[in-house]
Amino acid sequence: YIMAYYPVNDAYEKADSRLENMLQVRTNANLKIVNEKLKDMAEMFGYLYIDVNKNLTDEEEKLKLEYTIEGIHMNAKGYRIVFENLKEYLQERA
Predict the structure, then answer these.
(1) φ and ψ at 23, to 5 degrees?
(2) Residues 31/7, Cβ–Cβ less than 8 Å
(3) What is the mean pLDDT of the chain?
(4) Residue 27 burial by CB count (10 A; 0-12/13-18/19+): exposed, middle or buried?
(5) pLDDT for residue 87 is more than 80
(6) What does the pLDDT read at residue 8?
(7) Strand pairing category for 49-50 and 2-3
(8) Contact status, residue 26 vs residue 60, Cβ threshold 8 Å
(9) Mean pLDDT over residues 45-61, rounded?
(10) d(CA 24, CA 6)
(11) pLDDT value of residue 66
């Protein structure tokens, strides 16, 4: 299995310089490129590509603020959406 990276949201104030540095590199545009590469890699090696990001993003394709602690890490609500999305893949394999 290869799983997609989660989206981020850069709307938070960057009080922490480490977070600011992470959001400069970990942009949704970069994550989209990486996820496409992961999907290609999964196909090449015969792995299942898992994308559990459905319903995590807003209209701008950013991680919904209600699902994140500070723009990068998800809270319990976000992981609940991931879990619900993951169940679809588990049911397909059962």
Answers:
(1) -75, -15
(2) yes
(3) 90
(4) middle
(5) yes
(6) 93
(7) parallel
(8) no
(9) 95
(10) 15
(11) 96
